[in-house]
Structure prediction request, 109 residues.
Amino acid sequence: MENNNIDEGKSIAIVSYITIIGAIAAIFMNQDKKNSFAAFHIRQALGIFISFFLIGYFIGYFDSWMISSAFYVFYFILWIYGFLGALQGQMKLIPLLGEQFQKIFKNIE
Prediction:
């Protein structure tokens, strides 16, 4: 039984963008409701956080503040894009990586 109501899934979608703990909590919050809007944003937020940690680990080896700050700005812009999409009730894919996040985390419903 799938519920596609954006208003019901909006709060779960917003929670998913509040740190990685919020994304994990949102997965459990969406277990009973199975809201497709919330699941979309959970996949996007989880992808942002996991890729941030994975890529950030390697960026840390560069001893350059320019590379590090560009990395942080890039991920902050992705996070803002996704968070604003959740606030506005839109299901817009995050640029560059959003489609991949939807494929990788397709089991999250």
About this structure: The two ends are 11 Å apart (CA to CA). The mean pLDDT is 90. Residues 36-59 form the longest helix (24 residues). The CA atoms of residues 13 and 38 lie 5 Å apart.
